[in-house]
Amino acid sequence: MVYLYLAIAVVVVAVLLVAAFVVPRRRGRIAPPPAPPAAPALDEKPAVVEAPDTPVIAPPPTVETPEPVAGRLVRLRARLARSQNSLGRGLLSVLSRDRLDDDAWDDVEEALLTSDVGVGATTEIVDRLRTRTKVLGTRSEGELRALLAEELVTALQPDLDRTLHSTPTGDRPAVVMVVGVNGTGKTTTCGKLARVLVADGRTVLLGAADTFRAAAADQLQTWGARVGAETVRGPEGGDPASVAFDAVREGTERKVDTVLIDTAGRLHTKVGLMDELGKVKRVVEKQGPVDETLLVLDATTGQNGLTQARVFTEVVDVTGIVLTKLDGTAKGGIVISVQRELGVPVKLIGLGEGADDLAPFDPEQFVDALLG
Fold this sequence. Notes:
Strand order of the largest sheet: 3-2-4-1-5-6-7-8
Mean pLDDT: 79
Radius of gyration: 37 Å
Distance between the termini: 130 Å
CATH class of the largest domain: Alpha Beta
Helix content: 40-55%
Strand content: 5-15%
Shape: elongated
Number of strands: 8
Number of helices: 13
Low-confidence stretches: 21-37, 39-60
CATH topology of the largest domain: Rossmann fold
Number of domains: 2
Structural class: alpha/beta
């Protein structure tokens, strides 16, 4: 029993000795608390951030001065000539042959047809050229070019009214609607048209009636801001007729010259969407007539553009055509076929990606550039 007590005493002493040496060492491993920050020197002033008395206002966007409209087509002549040379030069090369036999006239006819001039207009042009060269005995290149130019200008119907009706009537601004199918560059054309109007001295208000494409209103507003034109817009997915109505009302109150309304692109085969376009025009006309309804057509679509144009003309009574992307196609004959089939004049043509590459259409200048 004595031995048992002795053993327990030894164990207790051993535990106490271990505790005495190990615990202090473990406590030494604890990082000391961070030192308090040093007090600033007596002569050092604390930094103070003061709030400005007035809010910071971002500078307004720079308003651009669009290029004058007069002479734009002349400036773009070289670009147009390069894109159309397969028609103009092709025709001149055939007409300059030593012998204008049936095969040569077939080649002339083929060149016109492949340039989207259309069957009816092609037949008339070839018949008149054939008769005149035979009667007049024309042989020189200069004489042939002059004859061809005369016939092409005649086919373009130079007597059509190509005036862009954009001047206000009384206290009411002129209203211009821009319509077209998806992918023709309609909103971009609408923005460029605003530049055309501003360059002609008009004050413009834009109506973003394309409420279905998320970026359309933003895109139009950006175009307008560049020339100092404000944009009336509604909620995404809202009623486009309501936005168009509000734009005309706002334009009347502000006494602007022209209200330019961009509508949503739509396929001509979608009856519901076409009916909606008709509704937009009817709602706008509650405040007065729409002065101009411009249909934007992609020149690269060729004869398919005619089908589109017919349907739009039936729904909203198109008064003028804007042909875009003429710089990227050699099928400039679509100008002739569109006007011939619809009796609607081409009023503006797009010849590039630049902001001022939209120009009023002039038949004589167009043919002159076409033939190089």
